[in-house]
Design brief:
The complex is a heterodimer of chains A (87) and B (408).
Chain A lengths: L7 H12 L23 H15 L5 H6 L3 H15 L1
Chain B lengths: L4 E10 L2 E2 L1 H10 L4 E3 L12 E3 L20 H16 L12 E6 L5 H13 L9 H4 L4 H10 L6 E3 L5 H14 L4 E8 L4 H8 L29 E9 H6 L6 E10 L11 H12 L8 E3 L6 H15 L5 E3 L10 H17 L1 E2 L15 E2 L5 E2 L4 E8 L3 E9 L5
Parallel strand pairs in B: 5-6, 5-7, 10-11, 10-15, 11-13
Antiparallel strand pairs in B: 1-2, 1-8, 1-9, 3-4, 7-8, 9-16, 12-14, 15-16
The chains are: A mainly alpha (87), B alpha/beta (408).
Keywords (chain A): Phosphopantetheine, Phosphoprotein
Protein name (chain A): Actinorhodin polyketide synthase acyl carrier protein
InterPro entries (chain A): ACP-like_sf, PP-bd_ACP, Ppantetheine_attach_site
């Protein structure tokens, strides 16, 4: 069951907790339209982060969908669409 | 003629010292890292002692991107590989990536990481298990992470032969160098002291049940009742002698000989394979037994295994002749890390002209007729050393080391 929307701050917290932070990347900067690759995260890091997002929001993300969201903006849109539907 | 392969860098993570020089200083003084397990209450376990590396904090050495995806053994292996490369004064970024390989040994994989994830699995459900569990526990993960960290894409692999693995990795690394890979990072690090790791080791029946750190793990002693497990190991940089000399590298010594064998099946009346491994290594190095200055023993700490090793050494070298030592009495047995750490110690013994002691053998068994270097380090010239290692499951390995670049 969905509980709450995911914010950019929430996503960066989850990324830090689940996969750490690359040196030389400022997750608190303007990152909405940077690709996750540019932010130093590979597919496994995103899979790990997606697992935490699922646990915190109560939604279910398919692996394909996670792979398609290449930037934080796209990822948040995708998550929050599901959160809204579930509410 | 085959190309000589030399050691140009050493990185150590040991219970009695973090970093090569700290380990070596403690080892020469006879400082033991064995004590009651501190990271959890071991009172419910029959074997409460271990050689823990208390001073290793992975966050001091690795980025936050690596921490969530690595077991403790990998964190230690990565730190040790950094130190070994720095010691060898190699900048991997300046070397062609296919000209460098990685060969490590692993006895058990990442038990601590895996235990944490399995606990999440049974207490919270599969969605709580880390995606990194897919590889973080894996035997080959130390090799993989070292390869990724330093951009080493040449021939690489992992050897899984329990306590013999440290030598088997060096033997295999040497093959790659001889076939043309200029530099191979090689060695072994294990760290399976979490409760699940400890319980899995207890099933071998080879762990001491003593709770007294001053008495447990007494190899070749009449009281020997098993070993104390430890964590850590060593990572070495192997290069062709020609390449090392060309770039003016400091050379610790040559891996002059390597031999490996398997024991016959349990219950067989054939002799154990250890002697064959030792003789193969000596023959490979073209070294006669009297030329060996010191032996770093496997030192199982189990009566019948000690007897086999001591009598093997007595058969090859003569009873009570060549000095034999077991500095692992100060670290516990480090599984795949044990023999690489012994190789590091043997090379340092050559460098400094001093052999580290074996601790806690107050009453050496009469059926172990070897000349043990006991209690205090012995100053002596070491030109040639033999390192012996065995692994649970019938693995035997031996390496002959020679000081400096080889002459033949």
């Amino acid at each position: 069951m969905a509980t709450h929307e995911l914010t950019l701050a929430g996503l960066t917290r989850i990324l830090r907790e689940s996969a750490g932070e690359d040196e030389g990347v400022d997750l608190d900067g303007d990152i909405l339209d940077l690709s996750f690759t540019e932010l130093g995260y590979d597919s496994l890091a995103l899979l790990e982060a997606a697992g935490r997002v699922e646990r915190e929001t109560g939604i279910k993300l398919s692996d394909d969908v996670v792979g398609e969201a290449e930037t934080p903006r796209l990822f948040l849109a995708l998550v929050n669409e599901l959160v809204t539907v579930g509410t | 003629m085959t190309a000589d392969v030399v050691v140009t860098g050493i990185g150590v993570v040991a219970p009695n010292g973090l970093g090569t020089e700290e380990f070596w200083t403690a080892t020469l003084k006879g400082v033991s890292g064995i004590d009651r397990i501190s990271r959890y209450d071991p009172s419910g376990y029959p074997s409460p002692l271990a050689g823990e590396v208390l001073t290793f904090d992975a966050a001091d050495h690795l980025s936050s991107r690596l921490l969530p995806q690595t077991d403790r053994m990998t964190q230690m292996a990565l730190a040790a590989s950094d130190w070994a490369l720095a010691d060898a004064e190699v900048d991997p970024a300046a070397v062609p990536e296919f000209g460098m390989g990685v060969v490590t040994a692993s006895a058990s994989g990442g038990f601590e990481f895996a235990q944490n994830e399995l606990q999440k699995l049974w207490s919270n459900g599969p969605e709580y298990v880390s995606a990194y569990q897919s590889f973080a526990w894996f035997y080959a993960v130390n090799t993989g992470q070292i390869s990724i960290r330093h951009g080493m894409r040449g021939p690489s692999g992992v050897l899984v032969t329990e306590g013999a693995g440290g030598l088997d990795a060096l033997g295999h690394g040497r093959r790659h160098v001889r076939k043309g890979t200029g530099l191979v990072v090689s060695g072994g690090v294990d760290a399976s002291l979490s409760p699940w790791g400890l319980v899995s080791q207890i099933t071998s029946g080879r762990l001491s049940r003593s709770a007294d750190p001053e008495r447990a793990y007494a190899p070749f002693d009449v009281s020997a009742d098993g070993h104390v497990p430890g964590e850590g190991g060593a990572i070495l940089v192997l290069e062709s002698a020609a390449g090392a000399l060309e770039r003016g590298a400091r050379i610790y010594g040559t891996i002059a000989g390597y031999g490996a064998s398997c024991d016959p099946a349990p219950g067989s009346d054939r002799e154990p394979g250890l002697r064959r491994a030792v003789e193969l290594a000596l023959a490979d190095a073209a070294v006669a037994p009297p030329e060996i200055d010191v032996v770093f023993a496997d030192a199982a700490g189990v009566r019948d295994l000690d007897r086999t090793e001591a009598q093997t050494l007595a058969a090859v070298f003569g009873p009570h002749t060549v000095p034999v030592t077991a500095p692992k009495t100060m670290t516990g047995r480090l599984y795949s890390g044990a023999a690489c750490l012994d190789v590091a110690a043997a090379l340092l013994a050559m460098r400094d002209g001093i052999v580290p002691p074996t601790l806690r053998v107050p009453d050496q068994a009469a059926d172990c007729p070897i000349a043990l270097v006991r209690d205090t380090a012995r100053e002596m010239t070491v030109r040639t050393a033999l390192v012996v290692a065995r692994g649970h499951g019938g693995f035997n390995a031996a390496v002959v080391l020679r000081a400096g670049p080889d002459s033949n």
